[in-house]
## 1
Amino acid sequence: MSSSIASSSSSSSSSSKKEKKISLKTSDGEVFEVEEPVAMQLEIVRSFFADNEDVTEQTVMPLPNVSTAAMHGILEYCRAHEEFRRRMPEAAPEEEVRAFEAGYVDRKSNEELKEMILAANYLNISKLLDFLTGVAAKRIENKSVEYVRAFFGVENDFTPEEEANLRREYEWAFEGVDED
Amino acid sequence: MSSIHLPIEILYNILGRLPVKDLIRYMSVCKSWRDLITHPNFISTHMNLHRNIDGYVLHHKMATTRTGLSCFSCLSYDKTYVEHSSFDIPFSCESVYFQLVGSINGLLCLSDSYQYFGRTIYLWNPSIWKLKVLRSSCFNHNYCDIGNFFSVGFGFDHHANDFKIVRIMYFGDFYCPYVEKELPRAEVYSLARNSWRRIGIKAGCYAIDKSATAVVRGAIHWFASRTKEASGSNFILTFDFGSEEFGEIMLPRYHCDRGRPQVSLRVLRESLALIVGWYNNYELIECWDVWVMGEYGMAESWTKRYSIVPEERCFRCLGIINNNELVLDKSTRQELVSYDLENMQFKHLAISRRYTFREEKKECIRAPTKKVALKGERQRR
């Protein structure tokens, strides 16, 4: 469903030939030609173009902290939201947005999710960052400590005694936890 | 093992969304997580993020031996008052029932009931399952002497950022309590210091309310009476948690020729309110007067704001919610209703089956529920 939105958006942009594109270069050297209203959702891009009047359409903006894979995910989200905005400028079609967002993250692994969180943070897209951190919180809700360590790639630096003490003291918090 | 590490501000954002129980468990993830989760900044961020789940705590007084029944219901703060969760007290008290003294930021102050009230005090934070039992006192007293009785108030000192409990010991005669056999004594407990301290109190009066529920301007209020020797008359005894001093406020002339009313002190739209219920012949209340003290401490500012005769008779008033609705106990049919002072309409509070038990009594107080999070914990560190 999300891909159909993305393709319809690109077909509508090709029909209006004058639409301005902005070139963004990812950490692994790939250049993305992005429709201006979509690129402007990236706060870092918007302020780059607002602050530098001498940049031209030919300027390629480097984004050294964003991988190509993350960029695909980011653009898919921003294009879908631009499409929603274009169709219903007053109020977003909430149910459609929710359905899109649910399908959008279901396909992402935990590693992909974290990579996109980092990218959304760097690109300063607060709406997407808010959404993705919410998804991450949902994924670690009611999980075991081991699951959470693996999710975040955190090393346990407690001694076995310290950890056992914490577990004993807060025994009730370790009851009724989901299986990993 | 994962290769991507998220920066601390993002971790903050993610963990801030989790329920308290998860956070307590994730303190064991690693040392830096433990430090982050217990840091005062994180605790206040978490409280702010969860502000929207404020609500009311409803205390069902029931025997602690009863299993499978929850002592507390958490009602949502919006006008639906739906019971969104409930919790029990996982420890037992020395009498049959717990009595709720008060609740601030989700930290509950409980004591035993009836003649044991006030002797032992339990501070309990249900969100993090932390319990502190206070058995000590500045004063020696015979635990079982039923002539002694206590009044207790629970409050928060905003300047010192400290939870405090005030306790007054009266030495009367159980069957005739308004006779003063010995001078009363008072002490105040500070959670930050974790100790009781003796304070001065005037003789010649009794707080009739055992626990005070009305907190206005950092002070707590008891409906009180002069002793027989000081001849009669009622007034409001106050205690300011900041200055740690007692005071007095005059009551309005609320009496009429309908006998002895049921009187309780509450808070209505941040003002001190006096709710006076007049009985009919069947020991049910048929008429309520609501007095409001417009300017705090000014006796001449008392005005009778509402005088209502609802179609349904009730047993007692448990509190005021939403700044506008009396919570009333319809004892005959074991249910709670709210009465809107402006629309003059009853609404049945949808609280589950528990009310079919005859021996239950309910107490309603306003209290934020989950936002509490680790606040009590922080105070105790």
Note: Residues 206 and 331 of chain B are 29 Å apart (CA to CA).
## 2
Amino acid sequence: MHIAEGFLPPLHAAAWTVAAAPFVVHGVVRLNRQLRENPEAKLLLGASGAFCFVLSALKIPSVTGSCSHPTGTGLGAILFRPPVMTVLGTITLLFQALLLAHGGLTTLGANAFSMAVVGPWAGYGAYALTRRLGGGLLVAVFAGAFTADLVTYCVTSAQLALAFPDPAGGFAGALTKFGAIFAVTQIPLAVSEGLLTVLVVRLLRSTSAAELIRLRVLKEGGVAS
Amino acid sequence: MKRNVVVNLLLLAAVAALAVLPLVIGAGDGHEEPFAGADAQAETAIAELAPDYKPWFASLYEPPSGEIESAMFALQAAIGAGFLGYYFGVARTRNRLRPVSAADLAPGADRGGAAEPGGR
């Protein structure tokens, strides 16, 4: 669930847009290079964007008695690295802002920063760390997708707390409030996203091993997990 | 059923269970509007924290009703799911028509396992 249109003061909206813009530009450059150097991966790149599209459209009930939706950014961040996922995630956000009145144009920068920049980087970091510590491929994929999803909404909570500090409790008080709405709701959804991403990577491992080796997710000679 | 398929189905079942559980245990009971969107709740929280704040920009296009909005969300999911299905169809077919390599002809190689390149 993204920050709704007009719900960030102009100064905040502008600042987050400025913060997100260089990541998007860098992502476009990396995406073009990826397509030039590895044109066979075009279809898989589309599939990663499609995964983000599906998961961002699924509003799922949570134990807090409210609904939210996963992000689907962990998969693309793991397969194609975070900058490429920044572009795919921003496209998804733009689609929702323009056609679904979900999120918004003035809050696109803030939402892109949480879902398309910090989420993918945090998820990729969790994935890479798990692999380095000797975790198997699927365990690392779960950790990556779970982290990307949850961190996105922690950032959303912080963005809102910065814009609307609690008159009594300040930033921390507001963070607790928004965190209870976004981050806690998101925990079971992040688990779901982790499991779905593991499922997709299992299917990719059996149908697209060559691509995964080329993207250095799998090692040459078969199963890396 | 092959073990691979069983594990995949179990993963799907776990996701379904996680989605249904909040409804079964009645997590929305006692809420003013059970299972409202987290973004709508955030708007309410903003109204409490900053009562004077007025959204200064409205969506350029707003779906005229809840039905049309849910149709747009369904469309988004359908586009994504459709492309994913297309991808896996292409990948599976490409795999099946892959020229038989020497590894597959090695003694003891499971020819039926062509969908698992690299073997286990």
Note: The beta strands of chain A are 60-61, 66-68.
